Amino acid sequence: MTPIYVLTLFCLISGFVTYGLGIFVYAKNPASRINRLFLTVMLAATYWAFGEFLFWQAGTADGALFWLKASSFWPVVIVLTVHFVLTFTAHPLSRPDQTVKCFLLLYVPSLLISLLGMFTDTLYTVKYLSGTGFVYVPTPGSIPSLLSSLFILVVMVFALYACFLAWQKAPAGKIRRQNRLVMASVSVTVVFGALSGVLLPVFGICQPNLVFIGIMLFSLIIAYAVLRYGLFTLSPETAVPDLIRMMPDGMILADLKGRIITSNTTAAQILTDDETDLTGKLVEQLLSPPAYQFLYESLQEKGVVRDYEVLIDPTLQTIVSISGSVVRDPEGESAGAIIIIRDITNRKSSEKALAVANEKISLLSQLTRHDISNLITALDGYLLLLQERKASQEDDAYISSCIEIVEKIGCQLQFSREYHTIGMHRPVWQPLSGIVDRAVSDVSHAGIAISVTVPPVELYADPLVVKVLYNILENAVRHGEHLTAIRVSAVVLQTREFVLLIEDDGVGIPEPDKERIFRYGIGKNTGLGLALSRDILSVTDIRLIETGIMGKGARFELIIPASGWRSL
Fold first, then answer.
1. What is the distance between the alpha carbons of residues 250 and 227, in angstroms, rounded to a whole number?
2. What angle do CA 74, 123, 12 make, to 5 degrees?
3. Residues 485 and 550 in one domain
4. What angle do CA 317, 323, 328 make, to 5 degrees?
5. pLDDT recorded at residue 46
6. Distance between CA atoms of 11 and 53, rounded to whole angstroms?
7. Which residues have C-beta within 8 Å of that of residue 193, sequence separation ≥ 6?
């Protein structure tokens, strides 16, 4: 068994192995662009391997020349391999918008080389060697032959460099191992290809192309990567089609005319109540005219739509939430729109049931408070009548205690009424200056100067936020002792948080009480004001703290998150 025979056998085996591997990888995910491209590379390699094998089996010069010409498209096989590598490594040249550039830089030169090899003898010639048979050798002194070898060398080195960069940038784990194995397989192919294409011809050695040994090793490494590390199944590109298909929400991609380019099954189920393919249909056929008009105008004017609720089927009361965004091409021009559709029918039903339950509980609470309040009013009246009558000193003390208890019960009912309103109305954007002015005007502060210096901003807060400022100001006036001035100001932190400051020159708050004052039942009078204030602010994640110094005055800070304020 001669070395020529062994190498020729490698060509045949390589053809079968690459074909089988290509089919295997393609079957794992036929919808994947990478898998389809890999199949194309493997089929092309099979074509090349069989052509090489049949050349070395030829017994006549004409037969050898025929199979040499029939194998002339081997440069396209190499370019397909490079294209696969660029796609797998997500190289910019593999992006869809770079298709023309990729074709011009890779495929056009390879096709020209292939055509030269098929119709001329400027690349290779056939000659007979005693003891070996018919062989092909580079045409001596041919510039096209030299340029073709240089082109092949450059593109293979380029592919190897792309593999190296992808391996370096890949995160630790399976993705990095996948890139390392792909780089190793390409390296092996380049080394054996360089041996046959560059080094051996220099020494006049003619034998079957060693690149097929490299292709065999390439196939074995790729097979190991598939089985061991999930190659072609774990990369983001291969996962995208499945992710879109399995999305629980409907997804539609439409062009500028509103015609659907692609969609998933969920979108069809939501909009048509079956699994009909929506491709080719118009979006306006699936939505009511007002809904489509709003969606169209919003995308035109703002470029985005968020949580737009639409009644799709009045009979079944199907309600969906639509979000969408304009899709732009590399030049920044509108190319279409992507629309996400979520069925929120069950959620809306739950919200409606919850609203009805809350309404009933609220009504019950109001009626109960009203009845108790009436009874307390009557009890308070009777106690006052008893107090006016001549009674013993001991009885008078008892009656005074009863009146005090009734007043406290009344305060508790008032708190219950106020606390019930927290969250009853949706938070809204409110001008800060208006909130502060209302709170200041509601507080009796005779003899106390209140200065306000706040920027023109809006706060996103519960409508009761004005009551928070009123409580803080009223507490300062009531408990400040020797208070002469209150200052309201604001600062913006580096974290983009907005801090509203309310400072006074009163006695201040002792260090141990700085947090206790925000608890229910702590403090003078009812002890409910600051606790209630903190709960009102927490609806929109606003924090309330006290940072003053005892003996110098109190200092309350309302810390508004970056998303909770905006400039006017």
1. 33
2. 35
3. yes
4. 145
5. 92
6. 6
7. 78, 152, 156, 209, 210, 211, 214
If phi over 0 gives left and psi between -120 and 50 gives alpha, with beta otherwise, what is residue 258?
left
Report the chain (568 residues): mean pLDDT per 10 consecutive residues.
76 88 84 83 91 88 90 92 87 84 92 92 85 82 88 89 86 78 86 75 70 82 77 57 73 86 84 74 86 88 88 79 85 83 86 73 65 74 71 70 75 63 74 91 85 92 87 86 90 92 91 84 58 85 91 92 90
Q: In whole angstroms, what is the distance from residue 229 CA to residue 225 CA? A: 5
pTM: predicted TM-score of the whole model, two decimal places: 0.49
DSSP letter string, 391-407:
--HHHHHHHHHHHHHHH
Q: Are 565 and 498 within 8 A, CB to CB?
A: yes
* Whole-number pLDDT of residue 539: 84
Q: What is the pLDDT of residue 490?
A: 93
State the residue range of the domain holding 410. 349-420
Looking at residue 142, which CATH number applies to its domain? 1.20.1070
Beta strands in 329-456 (DSSP E): 334-343, 428-431, 449-452
414 and 433: one domain?
no
Identify the helix (H) or strand (E) that includes residue 557.
strand 555-560
Residue 543 in tokens: 């924090």
Same domain for 374 and 292: no
CA distance 434 to 428: 13
Q: Indicate the SS3 state at residue 313.
A: strand
> Cα 159 to chain center, whole Å?
30
Amino acid, res. 66: F
Q: How many separate domains does the chain show?
A: 4
SS3 content of the chain, % helix, strand, coil (to 5): 60, 15, 25
pLDDT value, residue 115: 93
